[in-house]
Design goal:
This is Integral membrane protein. The protein is an all-alpha fold and 74 residues long. It is built from 2 helices and no strands.
């Protein structure tokens, strides 16, 4: 099986959007009432958090790559 990079920021963003969709699907199905303005802070906060996670994991990935290759011999 081929290895692939893990992208936790994308995972978090997708999870937040799925939760928002489930909330509104439950509202449309009559299971509960979800106010229309719930999606704005949920999606915005989730995307901001996902961006922060992606930034931090990208920094860690670059630092690990630099440590793996070592200093430039030139």
């Amino acid at each position: 099986m081929l290895r692939h990079e893990v992208h936790p920021g994308k995972l978090l963003a997708g999870s937040v959007l799925i939760v928002t969709g489930v909330l509104y699907a439950g509202d449309a199905g009559g299971a509960w009432e979800t106010p229309w303005f719930v999606a704005i802070p949920l999606v915005t906060g989730g995307l901001c958090l996902a961006g922060a996670v992606a930034f931090l994991t990208g920094r860690a990935r670059r630092r690990r790559q630099a440590r793996r290759t070592g200093p430039d011999p030139a």
